Structures are given as structure tokens and as C-alpha cells.
Input
Amino acid sequence: QKEVEQDPGPLSVPEGAIVSLNCTYSNSAFQYFMWYRQYSRKGPELLMYTYSSGNKEDGRFTAQVDKSSKYISLFIRDSQPSDSATYLCAMSVNYAGNMLTFGGGTRLMVKP
Amino acid sequence: DADVTQTPRNRITKTGKRIMLECSQTKGHDRMYWYRQDPGLGLRLIYYSFDVKDINKGEISDGYSVSRQAQAKFSLSLESAIPNQTALYFCATSDRTGGGNQPQHFGDGTRLSIL
Output
């Protein structure tokens, strides 16, 4: 069993929809949680970074962490075709600059 | 110009060849990392370096070696390439300030195919 599980998709939604992307994890020692967005032929780009349980909002993006359930989510409001990408969750035990464990990524397609 | 530059962007080579992938950064970060990405597996850490004299193995270091030539340069070598090393390789950097509590920033990757 992988430490971090993520549905690979693809997830296809119409423009303007609310998107929910999720990861579950098995290691209760994970303390730092990140979401990366990766466009085709590009490197992962950091979207959200959070430490504590609860919600963190940044524009159209909301990251949610539930440590008791070992579950994290990324919500995208008013989705746009430019949001079409692969979304990777990542987490770390010690601090974000050290060893990250990634989920396999979810491919999202937002159709105009 | 990109903050984290990887060369080459694409490489096709044969089994048994020695290959070097290079990474340079202009972010001034102390910490550098090499990952490989395979479909459905996310990114897995190969090696990481917290400064020029510090090299550490990651999750999947077998078959790979690294060299930290300077603060800004970190290269990954495959001494004798094999087909299951075909993957997308990423270099990343992070800043040590704030107790190392800084996220990693990635280059655009090298697509490596070993025939």
C-alpha cells in the first residue's frame, strides 16, 4: 500500500464547476501538506502549503486538512480551462524543505 | 529565464551508457533535490543535498549517483543506464531559512528514454 493515495482520474468538469481533489495517507507523522499543479511538459508548481488541520484559502483555491481522518482536499471554485493540469498532493514529516512523499497525481480537465 | 534549469530537456540513449543530467539554479537556495516521475507513481526522491558538502540518499538511489559542484549546480548520473530508468527527472530547490520550513521549487524536467 502506498503511503499517499490519490485518484488518478481523469476528472472532467465543465467550466465554472467546483472541483474537489483528494488524497488519503497512512502515515500519521505527516505534518506538512502541499498541493502542486503540473502542466504538460512542465515541472510541478506549488499552489498551496499548509501545516495545520482546517482550511486555508487563496483566491479560487481552498486547501483542507483533516489529520484525524488522514485526508486532505483541494477545492477549486469557478474552474477555468486554464486549470486543466495534473494536481499532485505532497506531504512531509519534518518540514517542507526535506523529504516529500507525493501522491500519484489527479489529471483534471476543465471543458469550456 | 527559469530559476531552476535542467539540461538536457530530452535524451534518448542505449542500455549501458553513462548519462549525466544537470541542474542549475539562480534562486540562491542551499538545498537541491533530484526526483524521478513515473506515470501513476508521483515523484520519488533519488538524492538530496543540503549544501555543497552534504549529499544524502533518497527513497530510490540505487543505480544513480550525484555531484554537487557548487551551491547552484547539482548533477545526476546514471553510471550504466537500464530501460527501467526511463522516466521524467526533476530537479528541485528549497531555501534553508525559517528552519528549513520552505517548500520546494521544481525545474521543467528531463525526459529520459533508455532503449
